[in-house]
Amino acid sequence: MERKMHINCLRTQIQEIELKHGNILDACKQIIPICKTNLFGLREKVINQGFQNENDEIQFFKFTKQVPLTNLIYYMEVLDFEASFPMDKFKPQRKYIKTKMEDISAFYRIHSDFVRYARLKQTHFDKQFFTRKYSGFHCGTAEPYYILDPIFNTSHDYLLAKISAFQRISIYLQNRLKSSDEVNKISNLSWTSSKVSLTELVYALYYSGAINNGRADIKQIANAFEKIFNFSLGDFYRTYIEICSRKKDRLKFLNEMNYIISNKMKRGDA
Predict the structure, then answer these.
(1) Which of 112, 121, 124, 197 gives 193 a disulfide partner, CB atoms 3.0 to 4.6 angstroms apart?
(2) Is the pLDDT of residue 268 over 80?
(3) What CA–CA distance (Å, rounded) separates 231 from 242?
(4) CA gap 206, 211 in Å, rounded
(5) What is the secondary structure of 241-254 as a DSSP string?
(6) Is 67 exposed, middle or buried (0-12, 13-18, 19+ CB in 10 A)?
(7) CB distance 218 to 171 below 8 Å
């Protein structure tokens, strides 16, 4: 019962963080250490309390430990994916997503026997897969992850978590690909200035209240510009903080625009 409450608390924490952060990178950076801490806590309980019987051990490695471990793998993969995501070109973005999807498909092929075992919710090898007594047991091409920590790993618990995490990542990538395709259909315009410049423009429109009578959220405005100009602003909150930290000429892009259009008007008047 204590372990179940422990896991339910983690699930609630993750949901709250995802709702709080509009930026997935910020959410990942907060969730990952929480999952690690959760796993450390579970490991201590295993060392200090052990298991009542073999079924209790199987239940722990097949289900309880899977929650923090699967989330850890998932958010680490998403963090790595988003941190390396091409910023401003449609074709490289699409290629990057498809390459990741192909890597996952290759992983599934390599571990097809165990993937089938997991998806069909089979149990006949649970004793060998999810108890430390049989940590040297191998099936197909499964890697011996138990050597990482024989106290806290079985031969297949990490592999099961990776399969579960990759199932979620597949859905994430499919949505990312769909979103990328939709953005490309909306406009054939491309932002060719810097991310900082577009961030200045987005915040200028937000603070001026020029959109929806000032009721438009900053994220809505940023997303609209990303779609129109086929450009990813990334963590525009952090970019804005960097703009604010400038010692001089904070609104460099807006000032340059003002200067350029003023000169054009003067020449026109002349």
Answers:
(1) 197
(2) no
(3) 19
(4) 7
(5) HHHHT-SS-TTHHH
(6) buried
(7) no
Look at residue 199 in the predicted model and tell me its pLDDT.
93
- Alpha-carbon gap, residue 232 to 218, rounded angstroms: 15
Please give the structure tokens belonging to residue 67: 């929650």
Question: Distance between CA atoms of 131 and 128, rounded to whole angstroms?
Answer: 6
Task: Tell me the C-alpha to C-alpha distance, in Å, between residue 61 and each of 56, 157, 216.
Answer: 9, 6, 47
Tokens coding 252:
């460099």
Please give the structure tokens belonging to residue 141.
């091409």
Collapsing DSSP states into helix, strand and coil, what is residue 199?
Answer: helix
How many CB atoms within 10 Å of residue 14? 21
Instruction: Tell me how many degrees the CA angle 180-186-190 measures, rounded to the nearest 5.
Output: 80
pLDDT 10s digits, 163-221: 999 999 999 999 888 876 665 665 678 888 999 999 999 999 999 999 998 888 898 89
Question: Which one, of 145, 17, 152, lies nearest residue 78 by Cα?
Answer: 17
Q: pLDDT tens digits, residue range 24-56? A: 888 999 999 999 999 999 999 999 999 999 999
